[in-house]
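Help! Submission page says 'invalid entity' but I think these are all valid:
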Amino acid sequence: QKEVEQDPGPLSVPEGAIVSLNCTYSNSAFQYFMWYRQYSRKGPELLMYTYSSGNKEDGRFTAQVDKSSKYISLFIRDSQPSDSATYLCAMRQGRNEKLTFGTGTRLTIIP
Amino acid sequence: ETGVTQTPRHLVMGMTNKKSLKCEQHLGHNAMYWYKQSAKKPLELMFVYNFKEQTENNSVPSRFSPECPNSSHLFLHLHTLQPEDSALYLCASSQAGLAGGETQYFGPGTRLLVL
């Protein structure tokens, strides 16, 4: 079993829709959770960063962590074509420990 | 230049060639990383350097040889690679040791093709 599972997609949704991206994980020691966005021919850039369980909102983006279910989500409201990218979830146990990544979900927003 | 830069952006090499990838970070960070990104696979951490000292080598074959001459520069020396080594090689940096400062910032990557 992989430590982090993420549906690779591809996922296509119409512009303006709410997008839900998810990851599950098996290691209950993970405490720090991140979402990275990676545009084609670019490196990943940090989008959201959360510690432990709960929600965090930043503009159109909301990150949710449910440690009891070992499940994290990223919601994108009012999706735009510029949101088309690959979204990678990542997590770590301690603050300075190595990151474990999901495979990434390729998202396309259709105008 | 800002952020993390990588050169070259694209590289094609034969299995007997020797080449080097270069990474430079302009963020004042003290930790640098090499990752390998292959299609449909998670990012694989290869090497970690903290304050120029290698702190992690994730069972990477010896045909990959990292070098960190100072906290701003990181190299990956490549020798007698295999076709399965074709991938996107990403460099990242972070400020280890500070609360919230451990976020990793990635460069654009070098797309490597081994023939």
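Support: the input was valid. A stray whitespace character was the problem, and the output above is from the cleaned input. The two ends of chain A are 37 Å apart (CA to CA).
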